[in-house]
């Protein structure tokens, strides 16, 4: 089967899921075409059955905003026609589902029936998609997709609550490719490069946007390091990073925070972690939490959105109310003080991550493609 995948090529979870999905499909013999404005960060272009088509946007003095949807629609029509694609799988509704709908209409005039599968990822529904400036078009694109999937039950419920949805929504959870999370031996994971002997390592990975609450990460770590010798590993870049740095200096803990910037080797970096912090305002799923668990790291998160479907309170980590940095710090400290419990939580986290394995999730997408 020939499948086109449209996604954001950046470090966000939706792009990562789309890329990992496409590469796994290609590995199984599907012909996969990525269509986006830049090569996705985790894409292995040299792999068999993988193709990449760049969407170019021309600058023109009249345009205050470049018409990306138009360029994407044109490219979709071109690629579907030329390579005889059968399915377009778009990740993140805005503006991908809308562009795919437009392409579908244009292709219909050529006698081509392309099926559109839309996967909702989170903020395309919650923070951004339901905003009045986008809502009508997002609702229309959802209702005019051939198949709609959401990455958690929580996101499905949010979609049904926020939009007038007339189609069925299948829940297909995000996944991890466990082959990329080998049991890293103590000797390979050189903790000494980052922390002194006896120091614990706390980590956080995000795009440092307000929804991720990185300022809470600093507040939680501040409380942890007062009781437990530790370092904080921050991976990712984004608008709040400067404020985070400033706050770390203000609290006198700057020398205990390691800023790593963006990385596409998060799986390797996570081998250093004892505890992962993700105090987000909301997460439809929390792929970063799943990646941490796959690397045997218990997660301290909020109890918002899809978190309770991924992180099990008192088993794989702890869930707290949004903004309750005191409780999140207390839970982390208690866990870090009890080696036996911490080790059990690490094993539980790994076990839970296995239930979101590629082997379990990929057939669900394949079924969607076959039936649409
Ligand atoms: O957080 C975003 O706005 C970006 C979006 C993305 O593209 O990564 O994140 C969403 O999709 C991820 C992959 O499905 C989910 O794991 C994240 O929880 C979700 N983010 C939010 O819901 C805030």
Helix content: 40-55%
Largest pleated sheet: 7 strands, parallel
- Strand content of the residues, in percent? 15-25%
Instruction: Report the span from N to C terminus.
Output: 12 Å
Q: Report the CATH topology name of the largest domain.
A: Rossmann fold
Bound molecules: ligand GMT
Q: Report the principal-axis shape.
A: globular
CATH 4th-level superfamily of the largest domain: Glycogen Phosphorylase B
How would you spell out the order of helices and strands? EHEEHEHEHEHEEHEHEHEHEHEHHH
Number of helices: 13
Number of domains: 2
Q: Please write the CATH class name of the largest domain.
A: Alpha Beta
Total beta strands = 13
Structural class: alpha/beta
* Unreliable stretches covering 5 or more consecutive residues: none
User: How are the strands of the largest sheet arranged?
Assistant: 3-2-1-4-5-6-7
């Amino acid at each position: 089967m020939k499948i086109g995948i449209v996604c954001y090529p950046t470090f966000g979870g939706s792009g990562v899921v789309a890329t990992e999905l496409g590469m796994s499909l290609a590995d199984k013999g599907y012909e996969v075409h990525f269509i986006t404005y830049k090569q996705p960060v985790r894409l292995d272009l040299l792999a068999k059955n993988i193709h990449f088509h760049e969407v170019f946007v021309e600058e023109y003095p009249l345009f205050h905003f470049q018409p990306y949807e138009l360029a994407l629609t044109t490219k979709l029509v071109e690629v579907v026609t030329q390579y005889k694609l059968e399915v377009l799988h778009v990740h993140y509704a805005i503006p991908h589902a809308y562009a795919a709908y437009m392409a579908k209409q244009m292709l219909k005039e050529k006698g081509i029936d392309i099926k559109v599968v839309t996967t909702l990822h989170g903020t395309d529904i919650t923070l951004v998609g339901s905003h009045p400036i986008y809502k009508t078009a997002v609702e229309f694109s959802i209702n005019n997709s051939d198949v709609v999937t959401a990455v958690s039950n929580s996101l499905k419920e949010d979609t049904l609550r926020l939009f007038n949805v007339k189609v069925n929504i299948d829940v297909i959870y995000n996944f991890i490719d466990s082959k990329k999370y080998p049991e890293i031996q103590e000797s390979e994971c050189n903790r000494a490069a980052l922390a002194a002997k006896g120091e614990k390592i706390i980590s956080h990975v995000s795009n440092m946007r307000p929804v991720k609450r990185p300022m809470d990460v600093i507040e939680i770590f501040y409380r942890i390091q007062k009781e437990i010798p530790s370092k904080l590993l921050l991976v990712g870049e984004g608008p709040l990073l400067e404020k985070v740095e400033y706050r770390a200096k203000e609290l006198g803990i700057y020398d205990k925070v390691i800023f790593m910037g963006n990385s596409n080797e998060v799986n390797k970096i996570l081998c250093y972690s004892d505890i992962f912090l993700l105090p987000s305002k909301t997460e439809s799923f929390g792929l970063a939490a799943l990646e941490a668990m796959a690397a045997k790291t218990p997660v301290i998160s909020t109890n918002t959105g899809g978190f309770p479907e991924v992180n099990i309170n008192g088993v794989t980590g702890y869930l707290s109310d949004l903004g309750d940095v005191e409780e999140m710090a207390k839970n982390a400290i208690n866990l870090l003080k009890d080696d036996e419990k911490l080790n059990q939580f690490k094993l539980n986290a790994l076990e839970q991550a296995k239930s979101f394995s590629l082997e379990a999730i990929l057939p669900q997408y394949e079924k969607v493609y076959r039936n649409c």
